[in-house]
Structure formats: C-alpha cells, structure tokens
Amino acid sequence: MAADEEAKETVQVSKKQALQLIVATSAKEKELELVKSCRSRWQDRAEDTEAAELLSYGPGAPSLEAEALLRYPPARWSGWGCSLSWLGKALGCCREAESWADLLFSTRDVPVSQLWPNFAGPYMPAAVPGLGLSIARYNVGGCGRPEEQTGHPYGGSKVRGWFALIEGFQPVPNGEFDWTRDEGQRNFLHLAVERGVDQVELFANAPMWWMSNSSSSFGGSLAQPDDFANYLGEVASQARSGWGVPVRSVAPFNEPSADWWMFPHDQEGCKVNSSQQARVIAKLRDELDQRGLSDVVIAASDENRPDQAIRTWQELGKADVAGGPSGSYVGCLNVHAYDGLEPWLESRHRGFRSALRRIATVAGVPLCVSEHGNADSSGVTLAQVILEDFHYLQPASWCYWQPVEHHSSWGLVEADFGDAPSQEPKAADLPHPKYYIFAHFTRFIRRGMVMLHCSEPWAAASFAPEENSLAAVITNPTLGTSKQRLRLSAFVPKGRGSERRIQAVLTEPNRRRLFVPCEVEVQEAAGCLELLVELPARSICSVLLPNVCLSGTESKSLVESTSTNMDGVDSPGAAQAGKLRKHSHDDQLGVTVQMVSSMARAAAEGAALERWLGQADLQTVRCWSRWEHECGCAATAMDAIPPALPSADSGFSDLLEAVCAAAWGADVTVKGSKKNVAKALTMLKVLVAFKEAASPEERGLCHWFACGFCRDGQEGEDGCEAGLHCSKIISETQANWLSKAPKQDEVSKVKARPLLLVVSCGGAGPPMLSAPPGQATNGGPGFSGPRPAAGGGIGCPEEDLLELCMVAVDWSAGCEVSRFHRFVRPSMWDQQDGQMRQAHPAACFADKPVAVLFPDVLADLLDWLPRMLGVSMDEMLPEDILFVSPRDFEVQSLLPRRCFQGEVDYNLQDFFFRRWCCLKDVFREYFALPNEAAPNGLGSMARYLGLPPSDKVRRTFCLDENLLVVRIVMELLKKGWKPKETAWRQAVAAPTTFLLPRRGDLPEMEQNGRKRGYWEMEAPAPPPMEKIIPKLPPTAKIVGATAKVAPKPTPPWQRPAQPTPPWASVPPPPAEPWVEPTDATEVGEAAEAEAVEAVEVAMAEPVEAPEEAPEENYDPGYDETGESAYDPGYDPGYDPGYDPCAADLDGVEALQQLLAPLGKAGEAETAPEGFE
Questions:
Q1: Compositional bias of type Pro residues: which residue ranges (predicted)?
Q2: In this predicted model, which residue has the larger pLDDT, 224 or 58?
Q3: 292 burial class (0-12, 13-18, 19+ CB within 10 angstroms)?
Q4: Nearest-angstrom CA–CA distance, 53 and 1014
Q5: Range with the poorest average pLDDT among 154-168, 943-957, 1100-1114
Q6: Where exactly does CATH 3.20.20.80 map onto the chain?
Q7: How open is the CA angle 848-849-852, to the nearest 5 degrees?
C-alpha cells in the first residue's frame, strides 16, 4: 500500500526533481521505485531530449538494445589520426622518439620500461598497446627566428612553450625557402610513415608571420592570401617529392571564423573571412595543379563548431569554390568537434551534425573530423563524442588533436617537454584511461573496414568483408551495470561449425581496469547474429567477431550481370523507354518482393516523418537509416561484396537521393549502362509503390499550390501531377472539421465575457522552396544547404505557410460555440508572383489559392467574432475576447510576426495580441505548482488532468491538436477555473523588445531564439501620419467561411476613447533585457549607454518601419514546434504505431501487379509514370 501511494505521489514530482533522484548513486528500494515510476512515464516519448539520456542512465536501467544497420551507399573507414605539431617538434629528436612513434602509429605493445621506467615493476602493466593511427597531420608553421621577425616575434610572452614555435620555411617576405627548419616535426613525420601512415595532411594554423596584418603568426588576420596559397603549394610539393611522404590533402585554415585569434595569442592562429578563404582555395588549387599535385585535395575549413562549418560552407558555395554547380575546389570537408573549448555534444546542439552530413553527401565530398580534444582524463567524454560523431555525422576519418601533451590532461599521455629544446622530453605519468578508451576504437575499427550504422549512439560497428570479420565498440553510459545487446541483422556465421575465437577487451576507467579481457556471448536468432555483454557502469568494450558474412552470401555465388540481354542507352526518357527490355528483377538480380516492400515502407515512413517532424528529428533519422539498411541488403543481392557505389553515369549519386527526389515530386532521369539502368528501374518500382501507398493527407499541402502557383501542371481540381497536393482533399477535410461545430441558429449569443478563443498554429506540408520543385534549390532534392524550417512547425519563419485554427468557447456554459480555420500564405509570395509567372507557363499556377493573406484573416475574424458576441464591430472591446494557447509563443510571437512588414495597423495588432492566457501559467497558478513542475506540452497537460491521449491523427493539419487543447480547457472549467489573462505584451505602437517565453522556462528555445535574433529584434515604430488599415473584402467565399463578410463598419480601434479596462490597470512586470553572450566582444558600460540613448531617440522621433533582416543563423536542431524543447511527452500528431504504408504494401499481390510490366520478357520496357 505504501508503495502504491509513493508511486501515485511521483506523478506530482517535477522532472528536475525526478532526474536528480534517478542519477543518484543510491540504490535504495524506495528510490528505485520512484525511478521506475518516472521512467515508465517518460521513457517512451523522451528519445530526443537530454532528459531521455539521464532517464536511461539511472540506477536499475533496463538492458539496452541497438541494431547495426548497413549504410547505403557503403562507406569505407579512412582511418584514425592525430596532429603532430607540438608533440612532433618536442619528441621528434629525443632519445625515445622511436618508442613514442611505436606508441602512436603501430599496434605493437610498447614496454613500460621504455617510456615509463619509473613505473616498471611486478605490480604494474608490462606494456601499453599501440594506437595504430594511420593519418598524420603535419603542421606547416608560420614562425621565423627572432633575428628574422620584425614587429612582434612569437606573440610576446603569451606563448605556451618553446614547442609551440613551429618554424616556417619562408622566413622573410619573398625570400628563399629553407627546408632544414622544423627538424623535430619532420623527423617524427618520417617515423610515422615508416610505421604505416599512408595519409598525410598538411595543415596551417597561421600563415608566415609576414603574411599577417599583425606581423606575427600568433593572432591577427590574413593580409596576403595569394602569397599564402603559393607558400602552401610549395611546401606540399617539397613534402611529396623532397621528403617522400604520401601527402593526401592540404588544409589551409584552422578555425578561421573564430573570434579569439587576436594578437597576442598563446598559440598560432589567424582569422580569415569567407571571401579570403575562397580566394586562397582557388589560388591554392592552381598552385597545386601547376606543380603536378592534381591528386592532392584541398580540405576546408576546419571550423571549431559544426554549425559554423555549415555557414562557412554555404559562403564558400556562394563564391563557387565549394559544392557549386561548376564543381568544387574543396575535396574534403574538415570540421572540429568543439564547442569553443568544450566538447560538442548532441544534447546541447541537436541536428547540426546531421545537417552537416547532408551537406557533404549532396556535395559528394568526404566529411572528416580533423580535430578534437578535451580535459576529461577518464575518457568517458571522448567515447561519447566519437560515438555521437559516428551516429549523427558519419565521418570518413577522425583525428585527435595532441595524443601527447605537456603537463595537460588534454593529452592521452602527459609528458614533460622541458622548458627549452636542450632539455630531454620524458613521460610524466602512465597513460590516462582516456588513452585506452581511444585504443578501443583505433585497434578494432581499422582502416578499410565498411562502416555500419548503429541505431543507438552508444555503439559503433564495422565489417571487413575481405577478412569476414566484424568489429564492435559498445559502451555502457549508465550509472549501474547494464546488459547490452547489439543485433547484427544483416550478418550470419560464415561456414557452419567453423571455429570462432572472439576477441573482447574491457576498460572501466573508474576502477582503472584497462584493456582487460571480458566475456561476450554470441547468439544466433531469427536468422541473424546478436552480441550480448554485461558491462559495469561507465565502461567500454570492444569485440572482434571472426567468421561472419553478409546474409545471403554465405552459401551461394553472386548473380552474374545480364548486360548482354539489355541495350545500353545514354538517356532513356519517356520516348526512349521502349528501347529497354523487360527482365525479371526478382529472379535474375536477386531482389525479392519482400525487399522491395521493405524499401518502399522505409522510404514512405522516412519521407512522411521528414515532412511532419523535420529532417533533424531523431525518428526521421532512424527511418532513413532503416531505408539505407534495406537498400544495402538489396544491393548485396545485386552486386559483389562490398556493394559498390552507383557509377557516375547512373543518373543519380545514390538511391537515397533518387527516393528523396521522387518523394518531393521531382523527375528522375535514369541513364547509363544496362546494369545501372536495371538497378534504377528496380528502385523506381519502389518509388511507384511509395506514391501509391502515400495518401493525399500524408503527402501534405504543397506550399506552391497553396500560395497560388506550382511548377507541375494541374489535373482538374486535384492539383499537380506529382500528387503532393490536392485542393479537393484539403477543402473536404477543412469543411468536415468546420461542420462539427454547433449550428449558428442552435447557439445563443455569448453573454459571458471574455469569449475564449482556443488557438493552435502549425506548418503545413513540406518546407518551402526558393525555386520550383525538381531543381537543385533550397529545400529541394540536390540542394546542399539546410532547409529554412524544420518541417514548418510552430515558429516557422515568415516565408512559410501557416495553418491557423480556433475554437470559440463559452466558459460560463462550458460549451463550444464555433470554429475558425485558415491557411495563411506569406505576402512575399504575392510579391514574387510576377517574376514566377514570367519564368513558368500559365498552366503551372493555381487560379484559386487555398491560402489567404494574414490581413484578410484578421478581417474574417472581425466578421466572425461580432456575430458570436451579438454586438456590432464598433461595439466590440478588447476584453471581450481572450486567446487561450498551450504556450506563450503563438500569440506573443508567431502571429504578430505576420504583421511586422507594415501590413496590419499597429492598433489592430494590440487589439488582438496584447493579452492572452497561457495554459502552462494556468496549471502553475491554479494547481499551485512550481514552475519546473507545471506541465508544458499538451500530452503532459492531458495526463495531469487524467484525460485519455488523442486519437490517431495526420500531422498534416493541426485540427486535432486544437481539439485536444479544447478538451483540456473544458476539463479545467469543470474543475472551477475562471479564465483570465496570464501574459501581456507591450504595445506595438512604441519600440519594444520582441520577447519569447519567460526566461528560464524554456532554455533550449531561448538559446535558439538568441541565435535567430529574437531577443534583439525591435518592433518598428508606426508611420508618422497615415495608418495602414487591413483590407476588408466586400464579399468573400473563402474555404471554410460560414458567411459573407459584413459591410465595412467603423473599426473598433478608431472609436472614441474607452475607460481603461481592469486588466490594463496593472502593467505587467517588465522583461529582463537579454544580452547574448559572445566570445568575440564583451559589451561594456559605454556601449550599453550608447544603446540606451539610441532607444530613447527612437522613442522620441517616429521612424519608418525597418525591413526585417533575413535569418542567417540556421539551426536545424531547433524544433519549430517549440514542444520538444520542454516536453518530450508532447506529440499529438505523431503516432509511433502508425504505418503509412501498411494498408497498401502488406499485400504482395498488389506489388506483383505493380511490378508485372517489368517482368515480361520480350516487350518494350517503359519507365514508371511520372518519371523520365
């Protein structure tokens, strides 16, 4: 009984309190019961939040399960590496240089007596396993000698040590090159190459001292980009021909956009803006080509953070040097895994890794983590960063900064480099546990292995097809012992009864159990293999599993190509489709109907979730990972092992791109050899199956069609041929929702004040495009940049389509009165109408757009509201209505943003959006809950009130979400709640800060808001003379409207002065001014006084409304709905049990009918409808 009471009590416990209990190390029964209760409430719906990580890492956590999936296109691992730089200079000429090189670049065991003689003994480890790194990054220095440098040699007294003075090879301007310099680092580079390093990257932290505006390589800006490019080209040529090292790439920059490269700095560094980067890259490409180094690629730009890497790549793309239509001078996208000096963690910056990976995939360049380091000597943070990089970023290689550091826990090993070059360097202590953590990755996931994608970021796996072996690295991030299960769904034993000797080692940093053997169980279940291991808290295990192979290849030879039976074609369009001959792909290429069905289902779910939740959402990423796995299984049945990439003439870079392109409505042209055409036709069958399976509601509302024009020709009332929009379906759904409202003649006029307007807003359909679908444009297939909005949810930018629905509620009677629904199109699309009509034929435009402009929506509201209130428009007062929303964001920010371009009178804005009721505040005040315990999202609010969850709904419309809000409001009214305003907004007529929800409530939303500039944005002052009145159409038959618009009366905001209403008598507390933290500049008192003076001048003198600046800092991790940031339980639209393809794909018979035209030999082969 006591346990039951305790479990009930936990329902009232805040998430913060529960998490604190969960992460506690105590294992008392009472606390464990609380843990289990809290976990059961949040575990299913908290997958993509930091709280989810804590929930799963508490004591008594259940066994963790993950699956290793194939990646398509398959990717070979390029290797692990490190930067030489300081350690190379310090260790390259010392007595133990050979042993240090063995430790880093070989897999042999290095005896402790060689490097750590003071620690050798019977109770100490006999040897340390080598890391076996295969990539060495050589630091091309920029220092001259003291007698050569003028101005500020070495950056003054801030230099961290003699080892940080990396000498350059051109010490004086336009002088001769001296190749005898930097002897220590060059010697260590040769030692690395002798031990098998076959990939050398030359990187520059700074140019030569005389190429900087500070006359020093320790801070400043680049002053001579052409000389810098010539310098790097000459060093690359000397390294290749003179030193005989395998130079693979040149990285000319190191965190060039960072603001901390100010002279004097304690290490080499230089700030290089994007235009200078583009110039250096183009010039360097010429310099390399002129020296016969066309195979040496340029790697850029080694930014500190992934989000900055995205912005820099976009700027380089505009300069046509990276990922542009004319090709790319950049052959590798390098990025660092930092957040300043802290590690870059997914829980703090969600979605940036995935967005950067997409950019590299579209550009067709490898993505490499060229630097990371941290001060956590245990290695737990290092393992987390590597695994998150593998899971979200999927790099081709990964490099640590300095494995050996001078008295710093940033190193895997600490050493004493001495105070001067004359002192002999020596190891300071045995390697940190972090060293062994890194060895778990470097010694098991070896260069050349085919990378797998693990469904959870606590595991990594790779496969060596030539050796028939599989390696896996598994971590236990919890605070207690946990059973880990890794399912290898695509692998089976190689040869029955063959001997299998499993190699498995364990490292437990907290107990200093380093690289000790451990037991791992291998099971064969459901036709695949599973690894089971029980790991202590915060430990890591690496496993090498021999004698395994891909499923389907263990006992049969690969199917031969059928190229002799098909004519090769260059570009088979619709007219040329008859040249292709029919083949039974199920039999001859090894692709079964079940494979096609699985691929189609995964493609449909991935495309639908991407539209609903955005491309950065965890569920979307998982669906597309599943799709890649299914493609990989099919490719294994068609090709040799490992499955090869599609050839350059196949018409698409990979099958995932083809599916995405077709899912978004673009044409797919298939061309090339017989074999590639056969593959493409097989996949096009999947696309057709996807289109047939996706209903019009799941396809979403096409923004182009809703805004008035669409690239694809129309088919009557059903919209374009692509099937991505359907005005008839939309109108029917909208009318059906409105028809459920009470009849107007059955409802008496509302006498109680205020009338509650329960409002919900949401995006509709796929993200906006900046040009017609099918072209390589923003948001469309083939575009290298992130989309402007993640699925177009709450908080979508002004250029996105907005869905607005409201239910009017009489709070005194506790009943619904009427409903209101509109799709709102941005005015910018009407402004571009002329340009679009000039660029595209008339058949591409919708005559009657579904969406309307926001001023017209407000005009409809002014007609709708008086009829329910039983008053005329000029008699209506602001206190007669009260918006009710689950968040502050809708009324405080989202809807007013539609008015900011001078389209709506400022007094009218105040009339609608000056006050509102936030349901979170209602729960906090009415139930006397602390702020952190008050439910944030609809799901948690409904659960708090004991309401059942919402029904299955289509996320295309926010109608059902609105009804859930109405149910919550009704339940609150039954409990005696009296509606009143809980939040205010300052008058728009005066300059005012554009606020998001209260600071401290939603930290993640605040962070993203600051990035988008919301905190600094000021509402424009009203025009000095005339006021802008919304246009009221004389008559209108808009979809969903219940009556014609009444004749234009005197607007309520122009009536005689009224007494001050009670709610306005007490002004709301002013919001704290927000100052965004920055590493570049600290705003002083003088700047603050200047800003205050500017605001006072702006308030005293009316000014014209400034145009709103476009958003530059795109944040793919920011959930526009605002829900996931503070309530993982909220998701009224998405149902994880819902399968959008189940209705049409479960039947093999339907698929066989679909594939029948491709299965008859001797007939002309035609491309599926909708494709060329």
A1: 1048-1065
A2: 224
A3: exposed
A4: 29
A5: 1100-1114
A6: 79-444
A7: 120
Please name which of 738, 845, 849, 852 lies closest in space to residue 802, comparing C-alpha atoms.
852
For the stretch 451-462, pLDDT in tens is: 999 999 999 999
Helix (H, G, I), strand (E, B) or coil at 761: strand
Give the burial string for 714-742 (b: 16+ CB within 10 Å, else e): beeeebbebbbbbbebbeebbeebbeebe
Phi, psi of 814 (to 5 degrees): 65, 40
pLDDT of residue 986: 67
CATH 3.30.420.10 domain span(s) along the chain? 750-766+781-822+854-1078
Give the position of tokens 């029917």. Answer: 732
User: Of 856, 900, 923, whose CA–CA distance to 1022 is shortest?
Assistant: 900
Task: State both tokens at 243.
Answer: 């030193």
Rounded mean pLDDT of the chain? 69
Q: Is 111 helix (H, G, I), strand (E, B) or coil?
A: strand
**Both tokens assigned to 24:** 């506690």
DSSP 415: E
Give 232's contacts (C-beta < 8 A, 6+ positions apart). 140, 202, 204, 250, 252, 284, 287
Taking alpha carbons only, the member of 1089, 1079, 903, 1085 closest to residue 988 is 903
Measured between its terminal Cα atoms, the distance across the chain in Å is 69
- Which residue from 703, 726, 731 is spatially nearest to 715, judged by alpha carbons? 726
Domain with CATH 2.60.40.1180 in the chain: 63-77+448-556
**Single pTM value for the model:** 0.57
CB atoms < 10 A from the CB of 1041, how many? 16
- What the block records as the tokens of 926 is 């009415």
**CA 1044 – CA 611 distance, rounded (Å):** 34
Cβ atoms of 489 and 529 within 8 Å: the answer is: no
Closest CA to 546 of 442, 470, 642, 447: 470
Pairing mode, strands 109-111 and 127-129: antiparallel
- The CATH code of the domain at 63-77+448-556 is 2.60.40.1180
Distance CA 160, CA 1106 (A): 48
Residue 63: CB atoms within 10 Å: 10
The residues near 964 (Cβ < 8 Å, ≥ 6 apart) are 938, 942, 950, 1132
Write out the H or E segment, with its range, that includes residue 721: none
Query: Once rounded to an integer, what is the mean pLDDT over residues 1142-1148?
Result: 36
Tens digit of pLDDT for each residue in 145-179? 877 876 665 555 578 889 999 999 999 898 899 99
**Dihedral (C-alpha) 1055, 1061, 1063, 1069: value to the nearest 10 degrees?**
80
Out of 324-338, 519-533, 536-550, 1147-1161, which region has the weakest mean confidence (pLDDT)? Answer: 1147-1161
**3-state SS, residue 713:** coil
How many Cα neighbours within 13 Å face the side chain of 1032? 18
Pairing of strands 269-271, 580-581: unpaired
Q: How far apart, in whole angstroms, are the C-alpha atoms of residue 907 and residue 1052?
A: 10
| CATH 3.20.20.80, domain 79-444, yes or no | yes
Contact 393, 400 (CB under 8 A): no
Helix, strand counts (H, E) of the chain: 36, 37
Between the alpha carbon of residue 441 and those of residues 397, 470, 510, the distances in Å are: 12, 13, 19
The full DSSP string for 1109-1141 is PPP----TT--TTSSTTT-TT--SS--TT--TT
Main-chain phi, psi angles of 1144, to 5 degrees: -110, -20
The greatest distance separating any two alpha carbons of the chain, rounded to the nearest whole angstrom, comes to 98
Token digits of residue 381: 């943070």
